[in-house]
């Protein structure tokens, strides 16, 4: 079966924010190729005029009232962050490496 | 053969004060202590917390007089958020994550009097059919510890099958409750999409995911579903349909019920021992007055291809949130982009990366129409096949899995072969239908086999009624593996 090219695998990994090692690039080139080749069977199905289904059960969109309700305290929301800074009066932020030069 | 103690017996004892919730909790914790070393079903056992909670129930059991799960010990798949109890999805990337809130099902189970004893091992982010894709090691099948228990909710299935908890909860995206239930010899129910709130379930495939119960019997699952089902404002996809009295539906009467069997779909690829078990179970249902008819599901054979395009596309989007910023593993780096990609590279296991890659590929420019859109169109045809079938039958019967539990490590090199074994379970998720797996026999080497029943949307009552009727004439569901006796 046709493998995906290594360049395609690397490009997809970049889109997915994954830093694959060379062994993974080789492995995924083969394994993703297998699955995509199998999925080629869908081409046999005539889908002319068939609308796509996003959800198996029809959804109704419901509006909620535009009211202020309690939410997670900032300290709780920050509690799992690898790096954070809490401010004295129920404020704070997530910390990441410097983004702007 | 003696029937297992039912959830209603346990909770009635606690409600009346005849049985202590602390004793039930200790029995559960003791069982975990003695057998889980060889089964690996639990990622976290919250023993102290569980005992405190049980003691609180005992001290005011009057408050739980009508609580449907008063004092019943339960286990939760480790992708369901529990406030204050680590929730890892069996992934390195969430190894230390302690949710600041409870999933809606956890709130409802707690209000119903249940006692959470721990969080169960699963395939990482619920991606897998064997429970081998866990950062914390594979779960073992209690019927044969060198074999897989099924997945992805393998730990939850094993908790019940090995007698560690009378009830547990898992999640499904493509069969992750039904398939391990079948492979462990217990009952597992996937409710209709939208029947149970997904709020607090770590998202995998948002149009497919659904939480459901594992139990020894259809009756236990009926009680559990009644607790967790219902509209939730926090989940826009939860349904406003009234919640039925599922236990009242268990009348034993299936006279006149029509059962459809898609014979041509089942003609190839099913283990002969499993085919024979299906044929015998249909005889049992016929003897109870049901009619078995042949049906066609012409597009069901494409369900695997459709599923692995749709589910991975949704997963690639959902798992973008794990980037080392707000929670989870961070690999320190000088710039933000490489912090993301290094954290994800280190934090995710091989199967999760494979699915993120596949999903990213099928959504990317140039491939979207050929793969993702095409899959969504065939999804429509699969859904129509079922809708047509349900014009003439009340339930559809199939094996849950075409194969018996295989040896740990046997299929890890060939993901496609593993995916293909999901052939009978994924269509219920694609079409949003409820489906149940009930024990219906054993292979010659004493491995459990499951009968799968799929029903109309929001008709869990009929599924549970047929499953319960089947249990009344069989003893498969009473069997326990040697380790649990």
Report on the structure:
The complex is a heterodimer of chains A (101) and B (485). With 101 residues, chain A is mainly alpha-helical. Chain A has a domain at 6-44. Chain A has three helices and two strands; from the N terminus they run H-H-H-E-E. In chain A, strands 1-2 form a two-stranded antiparallel sheet. In chain A, helix 1 (6-15) crosses helix 2 (22-39). Chain B is α/β, with parallel strands linked by helices and 485 residues long. In chain B, 38% of the residues lie in helices and 12% in strands. Chain B has 16 helices and eleven strands. An eleven-stranded mixed beta sheet of chain B has the order 1-3-2-4-6-5-10-11-9-7-8, sandwiched between helices. The chains are: A mainly alpha (101), B alpha/beta (485). Chains A and B meet through helix 1 and helix 2 of A and helix 10, helix 11, helix 12, helix 13 and helix 14 of B.
Question: Characteristics of this structure?
Answer:
heterodimer; A: 101 residues; mainly alpha; two-stranded antiparallel ribbon; 3 helices; B: 485 residues; alpha/beta; Amidase signature (AS) enzymes; 11-stranded mixed beta sheet; 16 helices; 11 strands; 12% strand
CATH topology of chain B: Amidase signature (AS) enzymes
Note the overall shape of chain B.
globular
Q: Largest sheet of chain B, if any? A: 11 strands, mixed
Structural class of chain A: mainly alpha
Number of domains of chain B: 1
Rg of chain A from C-alpha positions?
Answer: 23 Å
Mean pLDDT figure of chain B: 97
CATH architecture of chain B: Alpha-Beta Complex
**What is the overall number of helices of chain A?**
3
End-to-end Cα distance of chain B, whole Å, is 12 Å
Strand fraction of chain A: 5-15%
Query: What's the total count of β strands of chain A?
Result: 2
Q: Write the element-wise H/E pattern of chain A from the N-terminal end onward.
A: HHHEE
Overall mean pLDDT of chain A: 92
Instruction: Pick out the low-confidence regions of chain A.
Output: none
């Amino acid at each position: 079966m046709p493998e995906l090219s290594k360049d395609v695998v690397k490009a997809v990994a970049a889109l997915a924010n994954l830093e694959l090692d060379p062994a993974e690039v080789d492995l995924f080139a083969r394994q993703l190729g297998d699955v995509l080749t199998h999925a080629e069977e869908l081409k046999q199905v005539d889908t002319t005029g068939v609308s796509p289904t996003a959800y198996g059960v029809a959804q109704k969109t419901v509006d909620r009232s535009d009211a202020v309700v309690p939410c997670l305290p900032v300290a709780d929301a920050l509690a799992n962050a690898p790096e954070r800074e809490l401010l004295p009066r129920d404020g704070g932020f997530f910390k990441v490496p410097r983004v702007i030069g | 053969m003696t029937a297992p103690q039912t959830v209603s017996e346990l909770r009635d004892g606690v409600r009346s004060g005849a049985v202590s919730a602390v004793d039930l909790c200790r029995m559960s914790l003791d069982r975990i202590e003695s057998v889980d070393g060889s089964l690996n079903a639990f990622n976290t056992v919250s023993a102290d917390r569980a005992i405190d909670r049980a003691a609180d129930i005992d001290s005011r059991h009057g408050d739980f007089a009508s609580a449907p799960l008063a004092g019943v010990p339960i286990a939760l798949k480790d992708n369901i958020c529990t406030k204050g109890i680590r929730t890892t999805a069996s992934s390195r990337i969430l190894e230390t994550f302690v949710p600041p809130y409870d999933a809606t099902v956890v709130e409802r189970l707690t209000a119903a009097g249940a006692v959470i004893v721990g969080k169960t091992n699963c395939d990482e982010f619920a991606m897998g059919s064997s429970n081998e894709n866990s950062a914390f090691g594979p779960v073992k099948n209690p019927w044969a510890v060198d074999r897989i228990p099924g997945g992805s909710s393998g730990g939850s299935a094993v908790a019940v099958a090995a007698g560690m908890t009378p009830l547990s909860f898992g999640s499904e995206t493509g069969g992750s409750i039904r398939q391990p239930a079948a492979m462990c010899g217990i009952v597992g129910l996937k409710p209709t999409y939208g029947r149970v709130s997904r709020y607090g379930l770590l998202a995998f495939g948002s149009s497919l995911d659904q939480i459901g119960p594992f139990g020894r019997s259809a009756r236990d699952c009926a009680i559990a579903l009644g607790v967790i089902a219902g509209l939730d404002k926090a989940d826009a996809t939860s349904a406003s349909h009234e919640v039925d009295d599922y236990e009242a539906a268990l009348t034993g009467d299936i006279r006149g019920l029509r059962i459809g069997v898609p014979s041509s779909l089942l003609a190839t690829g099913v283990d002969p021992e499993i085919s024979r078990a299906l044929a015998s179970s249909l005889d049992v249902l016929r003897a109870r007055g049901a009619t078995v008819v042949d049906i066609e599901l012409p597009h069901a054979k494409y369900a695997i291809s459709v599923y692995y395009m749709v589910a991975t596309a949704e997963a690639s989007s959902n798992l973008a949130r794990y980037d080392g910023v707000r929670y989870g593993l961070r690999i320190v780096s000088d710039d933000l982009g490489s912090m993301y990609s290094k954290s994800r590279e280190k934090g995710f296991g091989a199967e999760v990366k494979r699915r993120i890659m596949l999903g990213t590929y099928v959504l990317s420019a140039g491939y979207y129409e050929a793969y993702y859109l095409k899959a969504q169109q065939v999804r429509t045809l699969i859904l129509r096949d079922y809708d047509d079938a349900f014009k003439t039958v009340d339930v559809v019967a199939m094996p849950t899995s075409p194969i018996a539990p295989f040896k740990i490590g046997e299929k890890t090199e060939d993901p496609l072969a593993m995916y293909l074994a999901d052939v009978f379970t994924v269509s219920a998720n694609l079409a949003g239908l409820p489906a149940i797996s009930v024990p219906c026999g054993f292979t010659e080497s004493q491995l459990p086999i499951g009968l799968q029943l799929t029903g109309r949307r929001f008709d869990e009552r009929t599924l549970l009624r047929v499953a319960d009727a089947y249990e009344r004439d069989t003893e498969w569901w009473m069997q326990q593996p040697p380790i649990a006796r």
